[in-house]
Amino acid sequence: MFVSSVAPTQATTTSTSSAPISTSTPKVVSVAKVETELNKTTEDLVREEFSDIPIMVEIAKCESQFTQFNKDGSIHLGRINPADVGTFQINERYHLSESQKLNLDIHTVEGNLKYARHLYESEGTDPWSASSPCWGKRIVVARK
To answer: Which residues contact 20 (CB under 8 A, 6 or more apart)?
Structure first.
């Protein structure tokens, strides 16, 4: 199955009625490719976002087991501190305001991952030091 849409065209010909006729070919997108993109797991997205920083993959695994949303669709909150949200368990009390200034919504997968990258780039792994007994034994701790 294919989904297609016609891209704008500049090439035209004229028919006997002198109305222009489009000669462009339609842009074809495979439904399978679209479904693949839509069906990526949070773990897949973490691994893509942090392919250059492997320690962050380990941190996400330790913090949430790569969970952004619970099975009922609610945001995944920390067991010890319910202000910790999403895949990287970003604490709303300390980081919600800053994430909003950056136009990042830590309650979405994309926003949580992008804000985690921002934290890592500014503070290294320090924001996740509480879970370092889990991830610290896998990879040498990176600090800035």
So the answer is: 12, 13, 14
